[in-house]
Every structure is written in structure tokens, then in C-alpha cells.
Specification:
The protein contains 19 helices and 24 strands. The chain is an alpha+beta fold. A 6-stranded antiparallel sheet has the order 3-2-1-6-5-4, sandwiched between helices. The chain has a 6-stranded antiparallel sheet with strand order 9-8-7-12-11-10, with helices on both faces. Strand 7 and strand 8 form a beta hairpin. The longest helix is centred in the first third of the chain and has 44 residues. The C terminus is likely disordered. Bound molecules: adenosine-5'-diphosphate. The site of adenosine-5'-diphosphate (ADP) has 19 residues, from helix 18 and helix 19.
């Protein structure tokens, strides 16, 4: 008895070991996960005489990844979804959680057994079940479940056997899983790489979008694909491209960010797969209502450009019924590629538009425009340039801009440094085109970026007419100023005669009337002279009559001229001329007028009782003259401008002092004409100090004989 038991026991152990050797030999060569699963399951069913069984493969997070279901020798495909039920609610879940095998002798009596709602097993009666975990490195990589239609059929022996096979098979399943994963990864990479090549092939936005859709359709094997871009403001998405039977209705549709699957993806910045739209509250049925399309399953990934979500890519209704596990990786990959491609295409479109706009402006400009390289070789010329210069475009392209005009290197800088610094330079010149006529031109040059390189843009304006008008006006002005002078001189001499004939000493009224008349006439004379001088000096004429003059005399003459005006406002005039100053070489009449101008301004802006000082001192080869007041002063930003023609400082609403803004412009021309400088130092509310320098007259041979 003992012996037979031992023999039986020995035989069983032998059979057991044989089986394990068989299992490991069967599995050693297999890599394909499905094949491994099928072999393990068949072997196991055979060795325990089971009728049906399943193996569920789990990923690292414990989610079902793949599975096999064998019912009476028939392999049921695509059962993973169905088997998920038993992981969530049934026996497999229990095994996974407890990491130990389970034996159920009667399924109707054990709560761990839950028949799936739709499965075939639901129809049959109670049975017996064994289940065991497949564990590798402490991790459950799968669960094997075997059933027998009779209750009480399976025993502890069966369970031990199943556990032993499971232990043996676990590594094979694990390797198969790894292999399947790497295959899938490779597939994803290939799909993305192929898309990359296709999507990057064009720069036209429409074409790029179309290629993205095609690539997505191919890679995911879906019925329809659509692409929406985020609108500026990031509140809305607009469908820009779509494929499928309702594509025309889809394009142009708008949805809000946060609304629907697409809106959710933009808002969350991550992809999403909805296998059954009826089960997911994020699905927004309004789009289907608008288009008449029926979306059953949807995969959606963000389109990113430089880290920002600029849109979404949607794949609808996979041909296989549901999306494969890697669908989102593929879609994500394409989405990332799409972002860069779309952005490039958009930039390219903007560039093209800008280029067209420039071209139009260029051709339609009323000015002649020429584009040259840094040497001046013409690369482009518009119609006006052809007209102005008198050559056709083709001929111009062989020419150099410096052939037609003399460039002003003072303005452009030596070696065009000003242009190289990026400044816009303008100057006047003469154009010598095909005809022998010379044309007065104004040239504006600046550096531009074109076709990726630096070029120069020359805008050439015909200013013949303006020149003519200018010289006409100047001639006219000089004529008037000039012609004013002799009648004025007559008035002065007439007044002189009257002064001698009338009893001015006896009658103070006559005296004062005559004084007013004389002073006013002198002022008009000074004004006429200054205007005439201004227009002459602007035309480039030099100072008429420089002669060595005593500084003290100049200052005194000016003081005499304004004394009455100062008295009327009770202004104290003080002279501070240093004794022993050398003579200055000046046109006496002109510099006297400069001093009078500065003094009159000082009087005009001073309040009653304020003080004005006039002085002179030596400054190197020059004598510096100054007029200092205690009046309102001049704002800092106006200190230079007031010397420009017609420049006047606006001082609040009450700044209503009369004047044309010509006085200081004359002073500047006169002083600079003498080789001196004029400036003003001023502090608002405290007064101003106008100063100018005049060259010292050299004694000796150079001094004009007088
Ligand atoms: P205007 O005929 O207006 O006096 P000017 O050329 O003589 O023309 O002066 C230009 C401007 O400079 C004046 O409008 C005034 O605003 C300012 N200005 C000139 N002199 C003085 C001064 N001494 N104090 C304050 N402002 C002055």
C-alpha cells in the first residue's frame, strides 16, 4: 500500500516535471505575445482537463493590455474589453489584489465569481474554476483563469499545477509583452516619421493641413479626421480642415475652448481618447447635429508649436471599431509635427503677403525707387525710376546708381557708415539721366533686408518744381527787403531834416513824437536789413564787411538803441565789458543788430524792474558776448530749437508775446557766418543767458587797412 502510494506519487511528480519541461520548451522560442498566450492556455487546459479559460495580460499599472479567451477550443478575438469586467469586478480582480491563486469549486456559491453581463459564460450553469497570478519580479503581469463545466471538478492538486505552470509561463508572457510593446513603439515611430516627411514637404498652409489629415487617416485607420486651430484671443477654436463625408459642413465651425472633446484637449493641453461618445459627458453632440455626422469614437491630440497649444487634431470612428492603445501616441506625435509645419506655413504666408504688399507699393510709388547692393549696383527699379532716369528696367539692372548722381558722403558717412549703422539718410543732389537735362533731386537712402540679405533702398524725388518755387520766393523776398531799404532811408533823412527845422527844444511834444517816429523807423530798418541778410546768408553768401571793431563800442551802440524800450519797463540795463579786450573782426552793423536782437528779447520777456546785464570777455581766440536776464527762462528741450526759423516757445495759455521766431534764426546765421558760435543757458523761472563768440581781429599784416 505504502509502496503503491509512493509509486503513484512518484509517477505524478514525474508527470508534473515532464509537463513543466514541456511548457518551458514550448515557450522558450516564442516571442509573439498572442502565440505565447495561446500555447500556455492550451497546455494548461489540457493538463487540468479544463473546458474554457483566459489569460489577461496587464501593464505596469495593472490595466488589461492584451488577452486571450478560449471557449471549447475556440479562440475569441478582441476579448480584452470583455475581460476588463472580471478585473474590475470578478475573480481576476481578486487574484490581482491578493496575488495568490484561487480555487472555486462551485461558482454559484462563491461571491468572487461574477459572470460578465454579455459574455457567453453567463448562459451556462454553475461550474468549477481555478485562477492563478503570473508574477515576474514581484509584479503581476497576467492572470490565468480555467473553468470546468462540473462543480467540484477542480481540486487543490489542479490549483498547484496551474500555479506551477503560471510561474513557468510568467516570464514568457512578460517577454512577449515587452516584445509587443517595442513593436508597437516602432510602429508609432514609423507612422510619425512618415508623417514628418510628408507634412514638412510643403510650405503652403492648405497643402500642409491636407497632408496632416491624410497622414492621420492613414496612421490611425479612421473614417474622418478634422483639424481646428485656436483663434487669436484663445477663446475659440475654428475647424480649418476636415476629411470624411461631412467635411464641407465641418470646416468653419466654431467651438469654445473648454467645450467638447476638442475644447477639453485645448484647455487641458493633453490628448484624449473617447471609445464610446455616448458614455462620455465631455463629448459635445452639437457639432454632430450641425454636420449630420455620427461620431462613435474619437481620439483628439493637441497641436503644439513652441510649447503652446495652437489647435487640435481629431480622428473619428476607427475602422476597427475602437482605437488601439497606441492611437494617442501616434496622434500626439503627428500633432507635434503639425504644429511646427503649420507655424512655418503661416509665417511663410505672412512673408509672402508682406512681399506682395511691398512689391505693390514699390511699383505704384510716385517716387522713383531703386534697390542696390552696397556698391550701388542696381538690382531693382520701379516704373518711376525708369521714367526719371530714362532707361528701361533691363538697362538699369546693368547700371550703378552712382553713375546718375553724386552721393553726399558727408551725409552718408565715409564708407557709408551712417547707412551701416541703420540710419536713414537724406540729401539733395543733381540727377543726370539719359537726357542731357539735369534734374534737382532729393535722395532718401536706407538699409533694408531683402531676400535674406542687406540691400540699399534709394528713394529719389524730383524736386525741380520745389527748387524753382523756393528760388522764386527767395528772390521775391530779397527784392522786397532790398526795395524797402531806400524808401526807409528817405524816411530817416526826412525825419533828420524835420528835427533840424522844428523847434524840438522848446516843444517837448514835438520832441517825443519825433523820437518815436525815428526809433520806429530804425526798427523797421533793422528788421528789413536782418531779413535781407538772412536770405542772403541762407543762399550761401558770405559776410559783407568785416572790420576790426572795439567790443565796448559795439555793446554801447546796442545799449543806446534799446535804452528807451528798457526805460519804459523800468528795466535796469548793466554793462559789464572787461577793459582792454582786443578788437573783433566783424560786420559792425550786423553784429550790432545781433546784440540789439538779444537785448530786445530780454526786455520783451523781463518783468518790470528786473535787471539785464550785457557783457563781454575773452575766450581763447574769441571774444564772448552775453546778454543775461532774470525773465521766465526757456525749457531745456527748447534750448536748441529756438534758434531755428519760426521757432517760438509756447508758454502755457498766456504765452501770447508777439513775434515771428525769426530774430534768433538771424542771430545764428550772422554769428556762424562770422565763424563764431551762439548758445543759450537757461533755467526755467530764473532767467536766461544768451552768449555768442566773435573772432579776435589779428593785428599786423592781416588787419584790413582802415
Ligand atoms: P521772436 O520774434 O518770437 O522773439 P526769436 O527768434 O527772437 O523770435 O525767439 C524765439 C523764441 O525764443 C521766442 O519766441 C521765445 O519763446 C524764446 N526766447 C528768446 N529770447 C528769450 C529770453 N530772453 N527769455 C525767454 N525766452 C526767450
Amino acid at each position: 500500500m505504502m509502496a503503491t502510494d509512493a509509486v503513484r506519487e512518484g509517477n505524478r511528480t514525474r508527470a508534473f516535471l515532464d509537463l513543466l519541461v514541456h511548457v518551458s520548451r514550448e515557450l522558450a522560442s516564442a516571442l509573439d505575445l498572442r502565440l505565447v498566450l495561446e500555447r500556455v492556455l492550451k497546455l494548461s487546459l489540457e493538463s487540468v482537463s479544463g473546458s474554457s479559460g483566459s489569460i489577461i495580460v496587464l501593464d505596469d499599472q495593472g490595466n488589461p493590455l492584451d488577452s486571450i479567451l478560449l471557449i471549447k477550443d475556440r479562440v475569441i478575438q478582441e476579448a480584452t474589453q470583455q475581460l476588463k469586467f472580471t478585473i474590475d469586478k470578478g475573480l481576476a480582480g481578486w487574484v490581482l489584489k491578493n496575488r495568490e491563486p484561487a480555487l472555486i469549486t462551485d461558482t454559484s456559491l462563491d461571491k468572487r465569481w461574477q459572470a460578465p453581463p454579455k459574455g457567453e459564460q453567463a448562459k451556462v450553469g454553475p461550474k468549477s474554476v481555478v485562477a492563478a497570478p503570473l508574477i515576474v519580479r514581484e509584479k503581476v503581469v497576467g492572470i490565468m483563469t480555467l473553468t470546468h463545466p462540473e462543480t467540484g471538478f477542480f481540486t487543490q492538486d489542479h490549483l498547484d499545477l496551474v500555479q506551477a505552470i503560471s510561474d513557468q509561463a510568467a516570464f514568457a508572457v512578460y517577454n512577449g509583452r515587452l516584445y509587443a510593446e517595442s513593436l508597437r513603439r516602432a510602429g508609432v515611430m514609423t507612422a510619425i516619421a512618415e508623417s514628418a516627411a510628408a507634412i514638412g514637404a510643403s510650405l503652403q498652409l492648405d497643402k500642409v493641413l491636407q497632408t496632416i489629415l491624410e497622414q492621420t487617416t492613414q496612421a490611425l485607420e479612421v473614417e474622418a479626421v478634422s483639424l481646428a486651430l485656436v483663434e487669436p484671443g484663445e477663446k475659440e477654436l475654428v475647424f480649418r480642415a476636415a476629411t470624411g463625408e461631412r467635411s464641407k459642413e465641418v470646416v468653419g465651425l466654431r467651438i469654445k475652448v473648454g467645450q467638447g472633446v476638442a475644447g477639453w484637449v485645448v484647455k487641458e493641453g493633453q490628448g484624449l481618447i473617447v471609445q464610446d461618445t455616448e458614455q462620455d459627458p465631455r463629448f459635445y453632440s452639437k457639432v454632430d447635429e450641425a454636420t449630420g455626422y455620427k461620431t462613435r469614437a474619437i481620439a483628439c491630440a493637441p497641436i503644439r508649436a513652441r510649447g503652446k497649444v495652437i489647435g487640435v487634431l481629431e480622428a473619428l470612428n476607427p475602422e476597427a471599431g475602437s482605437f488601439a492603445g497606441d492611437a494617442l501616441s501616434v496622434l500626439d506625435g503627428i500633432g507635434n509635427l503639425a504644429g511646427t509645419a503649420i507655424e512655418h506655413a503661416q509665417l511663410f504666408e505672412q512673408m509672402e503677403a508682406a512681399r506682395t504688399r511691398y512689391r505693390e507699393l514699390f511699383e505704384d510709388s510716385v517716387d522713383a525707387i531703386l534697390i542696390t547692393d552696397w556698391e550701388g549696383n542696381i538690382v531693382e527699379a520701379n516704373r518711376q525710376a525708369e521714367l526719371l532716369i530714362g532707361f528701361d528696367e533691363e538697362t538699369l539692372h546693368k547700371m550703378n546708381i552712382h553713375h546718375f548722381h553724386k552721393a553726399d558722403y558727408k551725409a552718408l558717412g565715409k564708407d557709408l557708415t551712417k547707412l551701416k549703422e541703420g540710419a536713414s539718410v537724406s540729401y539733395e543732389s543733381i540727377l543726370q539721366g539719359q537726357s542731357s537735362n539735369e534734374v534737382g533731386i532729393e535722395v532718401y537712402v536706407h538699409r533694408i533686408l531683402m531676400d535674406g540679405g542687406e540691400q540699399l533702398q534709394w528713394i529719389v524725388r524730383d524736386i525741380t518744381e520745389r527748387k524753382n518755387l523756393d528760388s522764386l520766393r527767395e528772390d521775391l523776398a530779397s527784392m522786397i527787403y532790398h526795395d524797402l531799404r531806400s524808401p526807409l532811408a528817405n524816411v530817416v533823412s526826412g525825419l533828420d531834416v524835420l528835427e533840424m527845422m522844428l523847434p524840438v527844444d522848446q516843444d517837448p511834444t514835438i520832441r517825443s513824437v519825433l523820437d518815436i517816429a525815428m526809433r520806429s523807423t530804425e526798427r523797421v530798418q533793422r528788421l528789413a536789413n536782418s531779413l535781407l541778410d538772412t536770405s542772403r546768408m541762407e543762399a550761401g553768401q558770405s559776410i559783407g564787411n568785416p572790420e576790426p571793431s572795439a567790443v565796448g563800442d559795439l555793446v554801447q551802440a546796442a545799449l543806446d538803441a534799446v535804452a528807451t524800450g528798457a526805460q519804459a519797463k523800468e528795466i535796469k540795463l548793466e554793462a559789464g565789458v572787461i577793459k582792454g579786450l582786443p578788437k573783433v573782426l566783424v560786420d559792425i552793423e550786423m553784429i550790432r543788430r545781433v546784440l540789439i536782437n538779444l537785448l530786445e528779447n530780454a526786455i520783451k520777456y523781463s518783468g518790470e524792474g528786473q535787471k539785464i546785464t550785457v557783457g563781454a570777455r575773452r575766450a581763447g581766440d574769441f571774444v564772448e558776448f552775453w546778454v543775461k536776464d532774470e525773465a521766465r527762462g526757456i525749457p531745456k528741450n527748447e534750448l536748441e530749437r529756438i534758434f531755428e526759423k519760426f521757432a517760438r516757445v509756447q508758454m502755457g495759455a498766456s504765452g501770447n508775446t508777439k513775434g515771428l521766431g525769426l530774430g534768433l534764426a538771424f542771430c545764428k546765421l550772422a554769428v556762424e557766418g562770422h565763424g563764431g558760435e551762439i548758445w543759450v543757458e537757461s533755467e526755467l523761472g530764473k532767467g536766461s543767458r544768451f552768449a555768442f563768440t566773435m573772432p579776435i581781429a589779428r593785428t599786423g599784416a592781416l588787419e584790413p587797412a582802415k
